[in-house]
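Q: I have 333 residues here and want to know how they pack in 3D. Can you give me a structure?
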Amino acid sequence: MAATLKDIAKAAGVSLATVSRVLNHDQSLSVGDETRQRIFSAAEALQYSKNKRRSTMPTARKKLAIVQWYSESKEQDDLYYMSVRMGIERQGQAQQFEVTRIFQNDMQQIATDVDAVIAIGKFSPHQVQDMAALTDQLVFVDDDQFAAGFDSVLTDFKLATAKVVDYFWQQGIQAIGMIHGLETTTDQAVQVVDQRLLSFKAAMTAHQAYQPELVFEGDYTGQSGYEMMKQAIETLGDDLPRAFFVANDPMAAGALKALQAAKIQVPERVKLFSFNDTSLATFVYPELSSVRVATELMGETAVDLIVSRLQNGRKIPQRIELGTQLVERDSTK
């Protein structure tokens, strides 16, 4: 017997209306990432399928591998990449793909007969070559491989960061600090520079206000955000800037914790503006202002690029850059 929406609602512990709106991608619905994941996990476990949805793909089911550069456990700590993957899986299901998840770039898990690959995260040239050897239908999300000849779906870091700088500038805050991240590809071959740092440097330099001593480097985790803000408090003292731009929500939450431990009021003494706007931004107090990234749309767009390649035989690579939205909350008000 086929699973129903009622079955999914019972398994996920939510209302029937919530299940219906989530599975129909209702963008007006405000629901946390964990709830969404619980609903989709329940739907997958119950082998739910929407019979009324027509596929634009050929009758034969194509095999799509999602290569996530994070491990499954690390993905749980970074809802940004989880949300991208969920967007891919939803759109992949709508297009009747047979989807396989590969975590931590474990290439040995990819079937040799895969039809297409969508890679999420950052990859070295060698890793890119390994994936390209499996299939010509290859799309990268959050990694600009356009120059190498591959479709790429990206976020507009430059404009988003400039908007954050201008936001503080309009409040009369000209000394702005930053906590950014540095990562390495899973094969340890390439160090990945934070594009938000480069954009921050450019935006502040345009105002002739960039101060390198106000910039601190972490690793995108909440603990590093805490440690970097603690270091800023100790080294800068009374010169601690009135505002910080933080590269992601976990680090911003850690930075907020360090400020509170030092009894520095947010936003009265220091304002925080984060990036990604995952549900974590609203789980802390005060809630974090954050740049909202269209993570689910990034995933959906990647699938659409695969579809266009398979259906139309497109060979010319495309580079799609999605816009962002500034969401103001109590950490900057």
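Q: Anything worth noting?
A: The first strand starts at residue 63 and ends at 68. The CA atoms of residues 175 and 275 lie 19 Å apart.
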